[in-house]
Design a protein that fits this description.
The protein contains 5 helices and 2 strands. It is mainly alpha-helical. α3 runs parallel beside α5. The chain is elongated.
Length: 126
């Protein structure tokens, strides 16, 4: 607000209809120098065929979903930030019950941390 620059975030860009993608591509090819446009989605979706055109004026960055050991490692580091430890067995169980979405896992870990409390020894694995 009151800035010379604009930040525009398009959520669920991977669910856009092809007609709307084409309209937005007209803007992307000739963007405003004062605008930062972010297209966010779970996949590259309908934008895959336009990737080269987008990379001429900006950049495309993909962040693949964490899986397997990387997901377990992320969970252990999140709970370690709070001064607790998380066993691999419990982390596997969380993924099995909660799923592999980081947002949901982070919420579940926060609930566990709050229920365990700060008084439990940090060396005791959750």
């Amino acid at each position: 607000m009151f800035s010379q620059y604009r930040f525009v975030l398009v959520r669920d860009a991977d669910h856009m209809e092809e007609g709307k993608v084409e309209v937005l591509m007209e803007y992307i090819i000739r963007p405003s120098s004062s605008t930062c446009l972010i297209l966010h989605g779970q996949t590259i979706g309908p934008w895959k065929s336009h990737r080269k055109e987008i990379e001429r004026v900006g950049q495309v960055t993909e962040y693949p979903r964490l899986k397997g050991r990387a997901l377990i490692s992320w969970m252990k580091s999140r709970i370690k930030e709070k001064g607790k430890m998380l066993s691999e067995e419990v982390a596997d169980y969380f993924v099995e019950v909660v799923g592999d979405r980081l947002y949901d896992l982070d919420n579940a870990l926060e609930k566990v941390f709050l229920s365990v409390g700060r008084n439990r020894p940090s060396s005791f694995p959750i």
